[in-house]
Amino acid sequence: xxxxxxxxxxxxxxxxxxxxxxxxxxxxxxxxxxxxxxxxxxxxxxxxxxxxxxxxxxxxxxxxxxxxxxxxxxxxxxxxxxxxxxxxxxxxxxxxxxxxxxxxxxxxxxxxxxxxxxxxxxxxxxxxxxxxxxxxxxxxxxxxxxxxxxxxxxxxxxxxxxxxxxxxxxxxxxxxxxxxxxxxxxxxxxxxxxxxxxxxxxxxxxxxxxxxxxxxxxxxxxxxxxxxxxxxxxxxxxxxxxxxxxxxxxxxxxxxxxxxxxxxxxxxxxxxxxxxx
Length: 277
Hints:
single chain, 277 residues, alpha+beta, six-stranded antiparallel barrel, elongated
């Protein structure tokens, strides 16, 4: 027993062969107008029309498929080119920013009469208990515990631990940090101690002395660590309690410690040679 599918295929093949025979017969008399010729044309024409339409449809689909494939390949090529251009643009922008930062560091070198060692920030303290950074210079580069660290904006902190290739820097906003400082305008002295991420305390400022919001605070040089005149920050708030002999002074650091990338280590911190910046 033949299945319906096989029977349909057999009939289609038989129909095609019959049409081929009729085409062959009509080809011998192409201009004949006999009854047999008309019967052959009537039988063959629908088959030819179907074949022609099928071939045309296949050609249409194939051409459009190739067009779509070609367009998709071109689109992928453009996307890859665009991604490459974006990457190159990012590199150029980053290089420009790096050049600007290094230019500022170079200006510091020219303004200070001390020996300076350039370093990159390679890590931060993740614990949150201490405010410190890791820089990529150590004993091999001449770094020593106690050396001050600065940035174009001002004082960063002080080296507290040194290894062969790296150093740990305690930031000036750390609670253990203390810098002998003075108000640049009035020459009032005090100690700048770390308090929070946003400000430091300017301690031991007498109630009777003049100090205003916006005054610039710089290092005094009397602690023998930080050269005189290094920028620390500006007075953010001044208040006087009812009791006590000192004012409550908050100082906002000039350095943005969340954006530090390059710093300078002062390898010769003798206060007598500092000029400030």
